[in-house]
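Fig. S4 source data, part A: sequence.
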Amino acid sequence: MSEDTDQQLLEFPCEFPIKAMGHADADFAEQVWSIVTRHAPETPTERLRTTPSRKGRFVSVTVTIEAQSRAQLDAIYQELNDHERVLMTL
């Protein structure tokens, strides 16, 4: 997909939910929050939402940011995907 096509799909700035899944460890949500807010520091804490899996072994962490650019989103997803405790991102 080209940069021109990306610009047609998203208009920046825009609200954008970033989701990361991992094991339901005590500080997983804080790890995700730390990564996301390193790239989007103006994000208020009310934008953090966690959802445990049915059996409680995993957790989904969603942080909705005001995305400023495709490069910003790429950097967030790259850092999340590189993190050893993140199993999947959406």
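Fig. S4 source data, part B ends here. The chain has a mean pLDDT of 93.
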